[in-house]
Amino acid sequence: MTVAMAPSDAFWSPEEAEGPEEPASASPADAESPSPSAGEAGPADAARLISEDARAFGAYARTGGWAFGLKVARSVRPGGQGAGETPKISAKEFAELAGCSAERVMRYYKAWDKAADDGMVPHFEALTPGMEVELPDADAWTTYYASRSSALTPRGNAISEAAEAEGIRPTKALEVAENPTALRAAILADPGTAEAARKALMDRIDEDPALRTELVRDIVRTDDLKKAVAAGSKAGDRVDYVRQIVEKGQVKTPAGQLIDAPAELREEAERHLSLIDELDEGEDSGEWAREAYDTVRDLIAETVQSNPELRVRERRAKFYSSLQKATKVFEELTFDDVDDIDDIYEDDMVERLEDLRQAIGACIAALQSATTQGQAPVVPAQQGPADASPERREHSPA
Question: Rounded CA gap, 338 and 90, in Å?
């Protein structure tokens, strides 16, 4: 597409409104032959001015920033070319004539340079002042042009690439990155923005160990967050407990026995689990998890109590569990690391040990009595001291 721009076209595009610079209203050519003002123009002059505006508007509508990029590309001297080798001028001189900053001129320059490397437009060396060339469609311009200087840094490049991956214009992401205070205000004021920020942090946390460490420290230092994490973990454990009943069809009794879940118990577990799974994303499941857990635990207790044989095994398992815990404690109760017992002696120590000895004696007597009567408890194959040990029993969430 060949585009001829009117001499009065300003070096400015609607994409840019980022600084105090005001677009120049006329090119140097206009300064030499000024156009009549609207009040002074006759019908013929007015028609000509309107026609020029329409052509300029149409050129920009078709090509967007390419039209202005061409002005820079054919007028600004490429790097490495001496001033005497070309009629072109430096970016600084061009900016002074245009009434804008050299930095803005260079953004157009670099955008054209990238596009030339991709074969979209001719290289600078092939262009001369006033030369017209076929320009790409306007939509392709944003692929090469960055209206913010921060886009030219490594950090800016990373932000631009991430924005393109998300399907948004890089300039929007760069603007947010350049205004962290504005981002903070949006997060504080708007739940939707806060949720988007939370999801972004969670997506980044795996590849950013430093961020992960800082988030953990923030949680540890904040009591409300610590409580929330503990509550969430507890709710998760309870939901897993109910889910295991549904998926495996077996449950652990309070004493650690593994038994088949009755049909009523499985149905109730499935019902509660379906209610939890249907909760909206982000909805608190803590109360639902507590209700499901309490319900299945009550049903397990009822199952044990309603079955005489199971009830006996439950008591036996509980006794073994308590016995092994007590055994472990007494094995650690020694004076091997004490140089002089008198240093740690207290009267109530002996009294407490005497009470414990009497309690142990009573237990031994009761068990010996059962043995004498030929009623020694028979340990079922599926349940024994080792099976009931605290280390081997699966703890359910409290």
Answer: 89
pLDDT at 65: 85
pLDDT of residue 156: 67
Q: List % helix, strand, coil for the chain (3-state, nearest 5).
A: 65, 5, 35
Task: Give me the phi and psi of 396, to 5 degrees please.
Answer: -90, 155
**At CB < 8 A and 24+ separation, what contacts does 45-53 make?**
52/6, 52/8, 53/6
Q: Please provide residue 251's backbone torsions phi and psi, each rounded to the nearest 5 degrees.
A: -135, 160
Q: Which of 261, 262, 278, 271 is nearest to 292 (CA)?
A: 271
More confident residue, 30 or 51: 51
Distance from C-alpha of 289 to C-alpha of 285, rounded to nearest angstrom:
6
CA distance 235 to 243: 12
Among residues 303, 288, 323, 292, the alpha carbon closest in space to that of 252 is found at 303
**What's the mean pLDDT in 85-101?**
87
178 has a pLDDT exceeding 80: no
Separation between Cα atoms, residue 168 and residue 51, nearest integer Å? 36
pLDDT one-digit tens code per residue, 39-68:
555 778 888 888 888 887 777 777 778 988
